[in-house]
């Protein structure tokens, strides 16, 4: 699959890189609730860009909803289909919105507005700071944790998705499901050997069987209350049947 990327601020065609491997082209700024850092947690300052098609953006949208931050952090939704110019704002579609911050047509314009010489992929989700007009972070796990931890004072729901006494367990579960399920289910579609494909197909099902047994004895992955572990797993489970099998990523599934 050919999509595209920015090279020194110019859009060029580039092959899809496959499973999640963001690394070198991510912003990694952080918000904090103590008001001291470069990006203090303030209501009506930050804006999210998400896609309904992207499981990584979905986990951030879920965190925002569970915490009750809809009136604290605004959001726009790009077209679920990426075309030659990447993620696009198509407000004519019922489930999409315009770019309410700058009125841009493409998400890549947000990236070049933040850094005119940016080189890297244009991904969702994006946490954008309207005060400094720059991208704070485009790594979904970081953004979800920031929404959970930094904005409690303004959240309408008294929900802690990563309580301190459970944080080690939650982080271990997240690491496990990331290795074998998120984005393990996509690895099959990009495997270049038969052995690699068969391993990639088997691993998600083995992992899901393991976590199914856990959920047989407790309500959520880390106990009696939902945590970020559940938030990080759900988007892939939601897409597991219809989307992933339709892409033939897992056409060798058991049964």
TrEMBL record:
UniProt keywords, alphabetically: Transferase
InterPro entries on file: Glutathione-S-Trfase_C-like (IPR010987), Glutathione-S-Trfase_C_sf (IPR036282), Glutathione_S-Trfase_N (IPR004045), GST_Omega/GSH (IPR016639), Thioredoxin-like_sf (IPR036249)
GO molecular function, one term: glutathione transferase activity
Domain of life: Archaea
Keyword Iron-sulfur applies: no
Sequence ranges assigned to domain GST C-terminal in this UniProt record: 163-255
Protein name per Swiss-Prot or TrEMBL: Glutathione S-transferase family protein
Taxonomic lineage: Archaea, Methanobacteriati, Methanobacteriota, Stenosarchaea group, Halobacteria
């Amino acid at each position: 699959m050919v999509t595209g990327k920015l090279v020194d601020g110019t859009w060029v065609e580039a092959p899809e890189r496959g499973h999640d491997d963001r690394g070198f082209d991510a912003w990694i700024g952080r918000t904090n609730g103590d008001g001291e850092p470069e990006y203090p947690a303030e209501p009506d300052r930050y804006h999210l860009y998400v896609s309904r098609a992207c499981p990584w953006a979905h986990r951030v949208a879920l965190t925002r909803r569970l915490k009750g931050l809809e009136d604290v952090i605004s959001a726009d939704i790009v077209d679920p289909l990426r075309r030659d110019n990447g993620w696009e704002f198509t407000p004519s579609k019922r489930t999409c919105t315009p770019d309410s911050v700058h009125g841009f047509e493409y998400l890549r314009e947000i990236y070049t507005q933040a850094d005119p010489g940016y080189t890297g992929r244009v991904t969702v989700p994006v946490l954008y700071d309207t005060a400094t007009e720059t991208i704070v972070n485009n790594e979904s796990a970081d953004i979800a944790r920031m929404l959970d931890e930094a904005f409690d004072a303004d959240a309408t729901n008294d929900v802690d998705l990563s309580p301190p006494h459970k944080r080690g367990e939650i982080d271990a579960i997240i690491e496990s499901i990331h290795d074998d399920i998120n984005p393990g289910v996509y690895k099959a579609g990009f495997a270049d050997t038969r052995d690699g494909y068969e391993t990639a197909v088997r691993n998600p099902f083995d992992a899901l069987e393991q976590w199914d047994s856990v959920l047989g004895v407790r309500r959520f992955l880390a106990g009696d209350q939902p945590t970020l572990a559940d938030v990080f797993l759900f988007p892939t489970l939601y897409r597991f049947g219809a989307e992933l099998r339709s892409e033939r990523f897992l056409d060798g599934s058991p049964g």
